[in-house]
Amino acid sequence: MAFGLKKRGPSNFARAADGSMTLIEHIRELRNRLFRASLAILVGFGFGVWLSGPVLHILQKPYCDLPKARLIDGNCNFVQLGPADLFLLQMKVALWVGLIIAAPIWLYQLWAFIAPGLHRHERRYAYFFTALAAPLFAAGAVLAYFVTSKGLEFLLNVSGGGDVTTTLDITRYVGFVTNLILLFGVAFEFPLIVLMLNFVGLASAKRLLSWWRVAVFVFFAFSAVVTPTPDPFGMTALAICLCALYFAAVGVAFINDKRRGRGREVYAGIADDEVSPLDLSTEPVPAGGRIEASEPIGAPEPVAAPKPIERRYDDMT
Q1: Comparing C-alpha atoms, which of 70, 73, 50 is closest to residue 60?
Q2: SS3 of residue 1 by DSSP
Q3: DSSP H helical segments within the chain, as ranges?
Q4: For residue range 227-245, what is the model confidence (pLDDT) as tens digits?
Q5: Which of 6, 13, 257, 306 has its CA 20 to 30 A from that of 106?
Q6: Could you give phi then psi for residue 197, rounded to 5 degrees?
């Protein structure tokens, strides 16, 4: 007996008639995009291993610049609690550096997979928000780097005594600095959410401006909760920057509303409990012409004769 594959007819593996991609083609494209992005990250990781030493030196600088960090022998010293802690930390830093170096490639692969399903105005919005997201995150990271030195100085002055020597664990210290940088960078993306609410028409610029008291309170409360240091410097710096970015976003929202002509609607100047003005002026309506009936009104329609009942061979009657 011979076995063979049955010949397939037109299936969903072929491209649709309208040019759209099938599910299998989407999965294959996702696989190719992920492979290219992973390859770029792997190459960036190789460069990150080479740059992990200088990056660690930059992360250690806020602590090493403090006078209390050089009280023992004039050098800035850290400790590791495990034999592989420093090696694992270098690999972790190398991975982060590799992600940053390969960001243009894997972000492009992500965009190339998503963009065909977006409309033209959605792509324009994506370009705008992406162009703002990177500088805002970088600004938050730079602010966190300078806030770290102030926070460490405050903590060491409060907790350190005359007979207490402070030596930091390198893994926990780098984790503290990187978490603070990531936190400030993500917090600086909040104005993009405000602009998104305005661009999609969910909140006007006047409404956003009326929320400024609530926004300022939320910013200071958020900064007090998420800032890992108990000193007032980091909390105040983050809250003030968020307030400034919020008012800048509201200013952009005013420009967007003016460009789109929002606020000039018919009921824009009317309160919720105010009756809108009605136009009571009437216009004369001319009389229509005489309509001649083609058939007498009320004539009955012909009724079709009933069809004979068809009986089946298995009817009992």
Answers
A1: 70
A2: coil
A3: 23-64, 85-101, 103-114, 120-159, 170-187, 190-199, 205-210, 212-226, 232-260
A4: 766 667 778 888 898 899 8
A5: 13
A6: -60, -35
Burial (CB count <10 Å: 0-12, 13-18, 19+), residue 152: buried
Distance, in Å, from the CA atom of 55 to the CA atom of 141, rounded to the nearest integer, reads 14
Total Cβ atoms within 10 A of residue 272:
5
CA 3 remoteness from chain centre: 54
Q: Stretch 210-216: mean pLDDT, rounded?
A: 89
What pTM was computed for the model?
A: 0.66
HSE value, Cβ hemisphere, 13 Å, CA-based, for 102: 23
Enter the tokens of residue 75: 């050098």
Measured distance CA(231)–CA(223) in Å, rounded = 11
Asked whether 193 and 250 are in contact (CB, 8 A), the reply is: no
User: Mean pLDDT across the stretch 282-295?
Assistant: 70
Dig out the tokens for 37 from the structure.
């992005």
Please, what is the average pLDDT of the chain? Answer: 77
Name the region of 263 (left: φ>0; alpha: ψ -120 to 50; beta: rest): left
Residue 144: CB atoms within 10 A of its CB come to 26
The token pair at 34 is 């992920």
Res. 39 pLDDT band, cuts 50 70 90 = very high
**How do residues 95-135 score in pLDDT, each as one tens digit?**
988 988 888 888 888 888 888 777 777 777 778 788 888 88
Q: Is 91 left (phi over 0), alpha (psi -120 to 50) or beta?
A: alpha
Structure tokens at 146: 């300078």
